[in-house]
Amino acid sequence: MDSQENHKLWGGRFAGKTDPQLEKLNCSLDLDKRMYAEDIEGSKAYAQSLKHINLLTESEANSICEGLDKIKIEWGTNEFVIKPGEEDIHTTNERRLKEIIGEPATKLHVGRSRNDQVTTDMKLWLKSNLKNLQEKVCELIEVIVKRSLKEIDVIMPGYTHLQRAQPVRWSHYLLSHAWSLKNDCERLENNFGLLDVLPLGSGALAGNPLNIDRKKLAENLNFAQITENSMQAVSDRDFIADFLFWASMVGIHLSRLAEDLIIFSSKEFEFVTIAESYSTGSSLMPQKRNPDSLELIRGIGGSLFGQCCSFMMVLKSLPSTYNKDLQSDKEAMFTTFDKLQSILEVTTGTVRTLKVNDAKCKSALSFEMLATDIAYYLVRKSVPFRTAHHIAGKVVAEAEKKLVNICDLTLEELKEISPQFEIDIGRVWNYENSIEQYQAIGGTARSSVLDQIYKLDSWLEQKYHRNCTKES
């Protein structure tokens, strides 16, 4: 067997070479080399566990840890040399360790399998890196909260079915997205608990025969718990599925925000203007200024769910314990992480730099949006809501029939529809008054919006040490 085959951790069983196409398909090193630091961290902790049960001398354990530290430096400085035939980060790190320290390196893998090793590496990687995504989500929330406080007096149409519905504050609209993102942060907090369970010490599937102290191993690797069943531990990818679903939800929320801003930035609306730094032009039409940043966010948001769906189909029919199908876990994890990080950054930049056009927002308001307020006016005069709703509908129909705004109907014309109308109906024809009636928690009144701002600010400061309103 040639030297290339000798690099394999399982090579002793085989006399022939691996087919080159299978070799290429089987290799995951291009992906899992991103976990070099986590693989080294797990190996160092495992070496200490072997020392505690006298399978490594203190000298051997120290030699292994020092050698692994050197390998980590080589990876970090791009000096590490990958050799042909190496399948994954575990293979290549072990080969390099043997080159550096010799025979003690061959003792490290005892009782350990790549099955429990790779799951440990992935959990360590996510534990280290998910905080970065959480920080990106919080940064976007912070930008939204700051804008909401600054632009709280901007009034715009609120929409259902993409039809004008009721007047709302621009800040109320923006904060609706912030609350979804807050839910995402809290959902991720729940996922951290599932990540915090150590699988190392499960072997290939049957467990570890050497009676290593798994609880001490978990403590050394900063895991709160250990897995209780070795067969479940080596095949468990629920934590990956949870991450992919979480990322899909964030992607959906970003995509919906992007879709709104694409519509609002069109000439038909012009509620917002996307900064040039987050826009592109046309190769043919010189006048074009396209919201490509938002369109990419919208598109990539869909592809995140594609990754989630694809990986769930991998999991759904697997027999128990480890199967090589699971190698697709790293592509799903890394691709999703990178894409989500990218669109979070672009979304934050786009929202931070866009300009809201106050005058355009106001000019889009129309008096038929106050039809609900007519019903509320009548309710306050003890008219049952269903009756009031019917009367308000008649007012709208009468205005349409006479080709006038509902506010242009005379009091006499309104009284013909219902005698409950009085001179004070004139107070209804005011957008600010309409907005200010929604003072219950969660409403669009100024006091309610400020309450939302301060609640989000307090949550950010308490959980993530951010303060959005201090400067203001």
TrEMBL record:
UniProt-listed SUPFAM superfamilies: L-aspartase-like (SSF48557)
Limits of the Fumarate lyase N-terminal domain: 12-306
Source taxon at top rank: Eukaryota
UniProt-recorded Gene Ontology molecular function terms: argininosuccinate lyase activity
Keyword field contains Lyase: yes
Keyword check for rRNA-binding: no
Keywords associated with the record: Lyase
GO BP field: L-arginine biosynthetic process via ornithine
One cellular-component annotation, GO: cytosol
Domain Argininosuccinate lyase C-terminal, chain residue ranges per copy: 369-436
Pfam families associated with the record: ASL_C2, Lyase_1
Family named by the database record: Belongs to the lyase 1 family. Argininosuccinate lyase subfamily.
Protein name, UniProt field: Argininosuccinate lyase
Species per Swiss-Prot/TrEMBL record: Sitophilus oryzae (Rice weevil)
